[in-house]
Amino acid sequence: NTMIKVNNIGKTYNNQIALQSVNLDIHNGEFVALVGMSGGGKSTLLRLIAGLEKPTSGSIDIDKTKSKSLVRMMFQEDRLLPWMTVIENLSFKSKKPEDIKHAKELLDLVELNDYADHYPNQLSGGQKQRVALARALMTDPEILLLDEPLGALDALTRRKMQDLILDICKKQNLTTVLVTHDVDEAARMADHIVVMKDSTNYFETDGPKDIRNP
Ligand code: ADP
Ligand code: ADP
Prior knowledge:
single chain, about 210 residues, binds adenosine-5'-diphosphate, ATP binding, ABC_SmlMolc_Importer, transport, ATP-binding
C-alpha cells in the first residue's frame, strides 16, 4: 500500500545538485520526517512530491486509485489572507452551506471554533498555524506535506502543535511528509525518519535511536 513512490530521483539547479538517486516508499497513512543539514535537499524533495517542480531524472508515482490524489502543503509562514477572517480563509467566502459546515468542523478540529470571525493579525503564531493547517485540510487531501510548519513557534507552542498535528494526521489517515531541522520533533512525530546528509547521502531509520549521530 505505497502511497508515494520516489524512483531514483535527481534534481539539479543549474550546476547545483540538490538531489541524486533518491528512492523512497511512503505508505498510506504513514508519517515520515525528513531531517538533516540545511542544503540537504529536503525542501526540494517536498516540492517534487507536491508537483511544484519537475525532477531532472527519475519519477515520483502517487497512488491515485484510492484518492482524488489531492496533495496539500503547509509552510513555515501561515500564508493566510490578512483581509479575510479565519472562516473566510478556509471557505474562501463560499456561501455554500456544506463549505461553511466543513470549515467549522475543521476549526473545531484545530480547537479554534471561537475564532471564526477574527482576522489573522488578531491571532498568535500558533493559532495562525492552526488556521493554516485547517485550510490545508479543506479539500480533504490524502497527502499532507509540511515544510517546517512549526519553525517559527516558541518551544511550548511547538510541543502542543506537534501533538495536535500528529493526532489529526492519524485520525484522518493522512499520509504525511514533514521537513524539520528538529531531530526531537522528528523522533516525537514520525513513524519513519529519513536523514538527508547531503544531495547524495541519505538513510532511512524506523526509530529515533540512531538519528542523533548521522
Ligand atoms: P534543505 O531543504 O535540506 O535545506 P534544499 O532542498 O532547500 O535543502 O536545497 C538543496 C540544494 O539545492 C541547496 O544546495 C540549495 O542551494 C539548492 N537549491 C534549492 N532550491 C534551489 C533553486 N530554486 N535554485 C537553485 N538552487 C536551489
Ligand atoms: P528551507 O529553509 O525551507 O529549506 P530554503 O531557504 O532552502 O528553504 O529555500 C527557500 C526558497 O529559496 C525555496 O523556494 C528554494 O527553491 C529557494 N532556494 C534555495 N536555495 C537556493 C539557491 N541556491 N538559489 C536560488 N534559490 C534557492
